[in-house]
Amino acid sequence: GFVSFDxxxxxxxxxxxxxxxxxxxxxxxxxxxxxxxxxxxxxxxGERNRFPHVAALRRSRQQAASADAADHHRRHLFELVTPTWxxxxxxxxxxxxxxxxxxxxxxxxxxxxxxxxxxSEFLSTAAHELRTPMxxxxxxxxxxxxxxxxxxxxxxxLTTISRQSERMxxxxxxxxxxxxQILTLR
Length: 186
Fold this sequence. Notes:
Helix content: 40-55%
Strand content: 15-25%
Number of strands: 7
Largest sheet: 5 strands, antiparallel
Strand order of the largest sheet: 2-1-5-4-3
Low-confidence stretches: 178-186
Order of helices and strands: EEHHHHEEEHHEE
Mean pLDDT: 83
Number of helices: 6
């Protein structure tokens, strides 16, 4: 979705996609200045990740452009809690046209955000599941380097090492590296 602002930095137009994403009607936002627009949109946001003010987006864009920064097209994320929970990315494009001063582009990135959260959670769990048997293997291997153990104790330690190695062996086939994704379940 997108919203355009006139030369006085008042909302001049919002397309139907923006209206569907936010639940805001054209009649509610047409003519609002950028601060009133941000306040209106923030009423639909939770307390955590709010819509950044348009002036802040503009400053960020101008700084990136003047620094010839690689994140020239950096997006800013915010969360709507109404009409439905979703995460939106917003970018700004500045204009020197006679009727348009700036355009805000909105994109629903809820799915991407959830996938990233699930990956992080999965990797954290996987690291924990791998760390536990590795700690046993490491510890028992260090024990075997100590002076003499009875044959029975040595066999017990080797059994533990073998069991923990087998546990790791059974965990690792679940992971498969996949070109564009960090890790996926097989």
